[in-house]
Amino acid sequence: MSGPVKVLIADTQPLFRVGVVSSIGSDEAFRVIGQTASGEEAMQLTALLSPDIVLIDISIFQMESISRKRSARHPLKRK
Hints:
This protein has helices at 14-25, 39-49, 59-73; strands at residues 5-10, 30-36, 53-56. By secondary structure, it is an alpha/beta fold. The chain has one domain: Response regulator (Rossmann fold). Helix 1 links the parallel strand 1 and strand 2.
């Protein structure tokens, strides 16, 4: 592999993402090519950007699943 390692970051916590981007960005061996707070968007960005590494908070999918279940039970209720 030539060039920097392409990294995609997915985490619901903005402050965590900022810290990781800052840490990784200071090393020339890595390049952050995207970041998101959504599991669904992480999957889309992975397909679109072809990162070498995806740093993802596994709970991001659990949280989105719970949110979808709540919306399905109460489609007219707003958050």
